[in-house]
Design a protein that fits this description.
heterodimer, A: Rossmann fold, 4-stranded parallel sheet, B: alpha/beta, Rossmann fold, 6-stranded parallel sheet, globular, L-lactate dehydrogenase complex protein LldE (chain A), Cys_rich_dom (chain A)
Chain lengths: 244, 475
Amino acid sequence: MPTERATRRVALFATCLTDTFFPDTARAVVRLLERLGCSVEFPEAQTCCGQMHFNTGYRAKAAPLARNVATVFAGYDAVVVPSGSCAGMVRHVYPDLSVTPPPTYELSEFLVDVLEVEDVGAYFPHRVTYHPTCHSLRMLGVGDKPLRLLRAVKGLDLVELPAADSCCGFGGTFALKNADVSSAMLADKMSCVLDTSADVVTAGDNSCLMHIGGGLSRLRAGVHPVHLAEILASTEEEPWAATR
Amino acid sequence: MGRNPVTWLGSPAFPTAARTALADDQLRRNLNHATGLIRNKRAGAVAELPDWEQLRLSGEAIKDEVLANLDTYLLRFEESVTARGGVVHWAADAAEANEIVLRLAREAGADEVVKIKSMATMEIGLNEALEAGGVKPIETDLAELIVQLGDDRPSHILVPAIHKNRTEIRDIFRTTMPGTEDLTNEPVELAAAARAFLRRKFLSAKVAVSGANFGVASTGSVVIVESEGNGRMCLTLPETLITVMGIEKLVPSWQDLEVFLQLLPRSSTAERMNPYTSIWSGVTPGDGPQNFHLVLVDNGRTDTLASTVGRQALRCIRCSACLNVCPVYERTGGQAYGSVYPGPIGAILTPQLAGDMHDKHAASLPFASSLCGACFEVCPVRIDIPSVLVHLRSEAVAAKPRYSPEAIGMAAMSWVMAGPRRFHVAQRLATAGRLLARGGKIRRLPFPGSKWTDSRDLPAPAKESFSAWWKRTRG
């Protein structure tokens, strides 16, 4: 159960993609953290971490976005991000842009390392497979934290994803600049997802889920992409319902 | 100075070359099989060593020490080689190196040279230069021989013919090797045919040309690490040995070499130790080649060394572990990279050695990655390939016209997202995108959005963004 640390000031960094396309994920983070005793704030001046600019070679255009994040989230004890990729950008790249990163945690890190919980009291009666996103795996090193959280979810049937640590082919602007290679990588990822017969594919990043889900939707495959936060927020009283 | 042959003349930009490669089903099956096999074997070989991470740190530190004091180590190496009877030549670029080797081969009276598999000689286009000068180069590494006989190009650093399966190899042998009409596609038979073909060459060649895996500065020793033993033949039988070596290949001492002799075999062939390690220091009277020439090649390395972020590419020991784990390489193969250095390491090494980001092909290479980071994870000398890729992307962007559509788009997005006011207006405008959607999905967009929607649906922006919801309910 939550420690006293949970009552500190926690800020949600929704990320531009989740804020605009996947508000359910951000609402789920709020619901989940509040259920665990945190007081969650959403600083309204937040925008984007600047990763797309930085990774595409527009370093100078990423800098003002990074400075905005540092200003907006200054003074919080913890900034929680439902994205391994954006958390990695803030923590590992900001120093290179001469911007001091605020204390930033990817969601599963915050739950397991800071709140020290694995069983968050969730209920999700579906067959689920988990895709470990590249940046959460290799940049942040979240390891099996998301899996530990998923294993503790009541009703959830967790099936292992074959070749799980292979990239889904998103890679930000890579998906557009090298669309053919990206699609070939996606095809293999989708085939692994379909092999599991899961109803739901989950991950800690909506960007990768948008990619995998976009491919599955094109095939009318009937597999839902659902962010980890939405699974963990789902309870018997208020179960998750498909909205996308 | 002419064009740097590290990139193949006329190579299209990576996305175009990749599209062609992706359409080759046989190539994809061959690659998927071969990279999967070697990837798993490597993971097993590395897992055996409890101090693997310490070895990687040592490898990185030794290479960084050499690169930081390259002038000192190079002069020490030259002095040691010369003192032991070798002759050292310095080549600023590919053309100079090729001239030196051709001249030395002619002086030795050779119209044919046997070659050990070598990335440096491939990088400078030595074979083409020798042939133009009337000297026939014979590749003696099995895979290089397959590539050479098939009039093909290499597609992998360690296994240059990885894109060919054994039936394709049999067909190449049948058409190019006399007396092989009945050859089957059994690996043992294929190897025996190559052996018989090469044995005659080893016994008649006056000159051998090699690369170098390592040079030991303190004693002037050159190290070749190999699997097949063809290298040992080349290094011992001919009278004259010419070694072509990139200037970054040095280690200070034999103690340092020990680290790399552990890192390299496990990373490249997934072996605890490779079958043949040949080490020689200058000339030994009555034993082996009596004339030893060492050609030290720069060919863009000094310029690469000048880049604080990019110079770590010079730590590379050509193991190919990054190729075998790369999801892009696994699907496109090596030839799509248009260079003798393919895969993740090629994407950072080739453009730096070529040194011209105005070249569309070279500038496309740093973008040939999803930045998944698998390469960095396996690199035995800890080259942070994703960071170097991003750094080189900045250089590629800087070389582009300032007002390209992409640059304008990026600048506009940065302006919009620099603060909440414009961002929230943009979010409200984005909800208009819902008009393009059916069932919450956008299925077709005009260019450049079509690059996404050609193979994937795009979710429509939410009716109400999270920030708008928060303001309405909690603000």
